Amino acid sequence: MKEVILIKDGEIALKGLNRNSFEETLMKNVRRRIKSLGKWNIRKAQSTIYLEPLYEDMDIDEAVERIKKVFGIAAFQRSAAVEKDFDKICEAAVDYLEDELMSARTFKVAAKRSDKSFPYDTPKICAELGGYILERFPHLTVDVHNPDVTVIVEIRDFSAYIHASQIKGAGGMPLSTSGKAMLLLSGGIDSPVAGYLMAKRGVELAAIHFVSPPYTSERAKNKVLELGKELCDWCGRMSVFIIPFTEIQEKIRDNCREEYFTVIMRRFMMRIAEMTAREVGCGALITGESIAQVASQTMEAIACTDKVAGMPVFRPLIGWDKNDIIEVSRKIGTFETSIQPYEDCCTVFTPKHPKTHPTIEEIEKEEERLEIEELINKAFGAKEKIILRNEF
Ligand code: ATP
Ligand code: MG
Predict the structure, then answer these.
(1) Residues with Cβ within 6 A of ligand 1?
(2) Which of 65, 134, 155, 209 is buried most deeply by CB count within 10 Å?
């Protein structure tokens, strides 16, 4: 008996005419995640993607864990693939589902027959296989309304498939079916979650991180790269651009009024992020901002930073509470890294009394004292590019 994985796509099913290209991308993404586990036959039929291991000893458990992190899959199944012969189906069902059936008290059989040439119709499959299971597991009774175990038999074109339970998928849309965006990645809790949420909607990610040595350390930078790597479990791979930000921060500190420091600094981040985004083909920026979380995240401060971004800024966490953000951060595996206590350039030179309701006119007036073009071009030109990948 051979074990296979069947993926039934989720929201993709709504995509009408584009459906094919979404499914192709999903197949490509799945293939990339599991190819290091051995040789697979991967094919698509009847809105199901079939993953069939071509060798005996391939690690299906690990494949399942990896597929749980592929976006665009609502649910999938581990399944026994059996020849379309009713006796063999019965034997395989009791053998493959022995543990589930032993520990259950009630069960039912559900059958689907897309190969109409199979000699038994679905009521007959259910009745006969149900009888066979009752004989082998006399402790069981049939409950068609609320069974402990549902034995599902699908008679499809290549084989019969037997399974009991579904595994929840990562949901969302296949990566890179919604374009590419630049994530402003800090070492905090929020920005990795923001990146995850956009990747889940099919957006391919690149990331940018601003460093201010010697005020920020090499260890702080490495922490951010570690977060980037953890994100790659979900988004495959990602380029991270490291931007030297010290000179810009010192110039703002030396020339502008203290209470405007944070908003001006964030405007510089946006300008440089936009330039970098354009260079690598990103159509939007992503930040982990949430309204009212800190002084730079008031409506007025956000309006001031938005003003210099020449492309859409996605803020998927804008209406989220910190506790809900933390919950996702734990789920996706970035929380423990995020809470390591290293400094961020945002916490260098923070004003004692930041202006929470700045106006664009005030900010632009302050910025007149800076050589904006020169500063951003210099930082942009000195960026370092690091390519991160998941471990697969
Ligand atoms: P986070 O947990 O993401 O650090 P935060 O609540 O600490 O968020 P801020 O420090 O105000 O918020 O930053 C808001 C957003 O600005 C971050 O979510 C991130 O997108 C971006 N950001 C902050 N610092 C940096 C940095 N050093 N490099 C790149 N982006 C940054
Ligand atoms: Mg931060």
Answers:
(1) 184-186, 188-191, 208-210, 287-289, 293-294, 296, 344-346
(2) 209
